[in-house]
Write a structure and sequence with these properties.
- This protein is α/β, with parallel strands linked by helices.
- The chain has helices spanning about 30-40, 55-70, 100-105, 115-130, 155-165, 170, 185-195, 220-230, and strands at about 20-25, 40-50, 75-80, 135, 175-180.
- It has one domain: 3-Layer(aba) Sandwich (Rossmann fold).
- It is built from 8 helices and 5 strands.
- Strands 3-2-1-4-5 form a 5-stranded parallel sheet, with helices on both faces.
- α7 (about 185-195) packs across α8.
- The longest helix has 16 residues, at about 115-130.
- The radius of gyration is 17 Å and the shape is globular.
């Protein structure tokens, strides 16, 4: 995995402006979301989680993405969702591989982590309040076979309403906004937008079942959706895959 620190500095580094908290997993969607926040004039404060996930390569990817895209800050915090299990990402439930598009698009997959985005957004909200930031970015998507209930527009609207009711800043007049700029885009549209903004997708990791060297499997739902997005644009995914 290339380290942005080994490359020449970005010619247009982020400058302090309106701060925004950006949830950053190290995957394709969150990297694009960070780039969008920066392009919209925000000084992004990236937030990643070590939440008991079976694979940790995404946290190294998140570190590289934050460096590459000029995050003002990048924090990694620990929570233990593996304590509860209930997901192929936090327990010994097998990660599905080689599923058909019909199977991928049907129902809520076993890779759904119970209440994960709710928990992540709640912690992001707490940090935003201490930063004096009124904007939180999350890279959820409700188009490309996403069966996750916490990736829907209804969820984003509901959390935003809650944020403005449940915080001191909200009660005293701050208007919190939860930005989900990818929510209605296809994977190909997300990739195209990221390329326009200079996202280096070779350092991102989206796989649910990477090997010991951090290489993507190419067969899980996330890999298949990602690969299809690049294929739709007629280009190859620059990430590293297992042979």
């Amino acid at each position: 995995m290339k380290d942005p620190a080994d490359r020449p500095p970005d010619p247009t580094p982020a400058t302090p402006g309106r701060r925004a908290v950006v949830l950053l997993s190290g995957g394709l969607d969150s990297a694009t979301t960070l780039a969008i926040a920066r392009a919209e004039g925000y000084a992004p404060c990236a937030l990643s989680f070590r939440y008991g996930q079976r694979h940790h390569v995404e946290l190294e990817a998140a570190r590289l993405v934050a460096l590459s895209l000029g995050a003002l800050r990048h924090e990694i915090t620990d929570i233990d969702l593996a304590l509860f299990g209930g997901s192929a990402l936090t327990s010994n439930i097998p990660v599905p591989q080689g599923r058909s598009w019909a199977e991928i698009s049907e129902g809520i997959p076993v890779t759904y982590v119970p209440a994960r985005n709710t928990v992540f957004l709640a912690i992001a909200l707490a940090w935003a309040e201490t930063l004096g930031a009124a904007d939180i970015f999350i890279g959820v998507n409700a188009v490309d076979y996403s069966g996750y209930p916490d990736c829907r527009p209804e969820f984003i609207r509901a959390f935003e309403a809650m944020a403005n009711l449940a915080t001191r800043a909200g009660v005293e007049g701050t208007r919190y906004r939860i930005h989900a700029p990818l929510i209605s885009l296809t994977k190909a549209e997300i990739i195209r937008r990221g390329l326009e903004l200079g996202v280096d997708y070779s350092i991102t990791r989206s796989c649910y079942a990477p090997d010991a060297e951090g290489r993507a499997c190419g067969e899980c739902d996330s890999c298949r959706i990602r690969l299809a997005g690049f294929a739709a644009l007629g280009i190859s995914d620059p990430a590293t895959y297992s042979p």
